[in-house]
Amino acid sequence: MITIGLTGWSDHDTLYSSTSKHKLEDYAGNFPMVEVDTSFYAIPSPLTTEKWVERTPEEFTFVVKAFQAMTKHKEWQQYYDSETEMYRRFMDAIAPMSESGRLKAILFQFPPYFGCTKENVTYLRAIREKMGDLPLAIEFRNKTWYTESTTVKTLALLKELAFIHTVVDEPQVGNGSVPIVLKATNEAMTLIRLHGRNSAGWMKANSPEWREVRTLYRYSEEEINYWAENIRYLQQQSKEVIVIFNNNSGGDAADNAKQLQKALDISYEAWLRCK
Fold first, then answer.
1. Strand partners, 138
2. Per-residue CA distances from 66 to 43, 74, 157 (Å)
3. Can you list the alpha helix ranges (DSSP code H) found in 42-147?
4. Residue 108: in which H helix or E strand, if any?
5. Is 106 in contact with 136 (CB distance < 8 Å)?
6. Over 70: is that where the pLDDT of 73 sits?
7. What is the pTM of this model?
8. Where do the structural domains in the chain lie, given as residue ranges?
9. Would you say the C-alpha torsion 25, 30, 36, 41 has a positive or negative sign?
10. CATH architecture for residues 2-264
């Protein structure tokens, strides 16, 4: 099974009219899954996530990004009285999705400075303990997890903890990015996130214009076909491959996602008609 979607539902102008007030519903008329990235910046209330569930078809699913203090981008002390409270708030937020069977995975995207250390391995184990048996996807942004001496150990750790490996396509610039590693660590699911290949924009992560340039990239037909082959390969390792286009800066994600559907000969039309 291959499931294709985008990061967020509000930045894809080709999917709806400029006057649309129902962008989530319009999005759900095009794709069967979405990555919720707003949860990275602030944990939403259960009332909000319940409304997302109510406004979308029963078959529509969500990949939810973990809150930024859960992934060491920020310190939890900036937001909550305890780490336990932070995790409890997040679990309450995803409950409407999880309890309705609409949660695909929780994505823990770690920062470039989260390297392959004993301390960080311990934290990964703590995450699994805190989150129970929920489906958790791990995305690294530090190359030390995928060196000649660490790649096998990294994949073994993810498999041991039943984590979903996130395969990424991103600019290869220094230690703040990781290579494409076409390996599954969870038989149920593998996640692919396509960030584009804008090396200059990727290096401006801390600049005021990062949203406009960081993922400003449009995949070529050749690159789409390359990823179609990679996805077919990963299908042999996991029951489901989830593909998320995150090249949103220039509004290219939706068009590229539909190109990939065509390359893989996938149509969601029958599903969409039943929504």
1. 108, 165
2. 8, 12, 20
3. 46-54, 83-99, 118-131
4. strand 103-109
5. yes
6. yes
7. 0.91
8. 2-264
9. negative
10. Alpha-Beta Barrel (3.20)
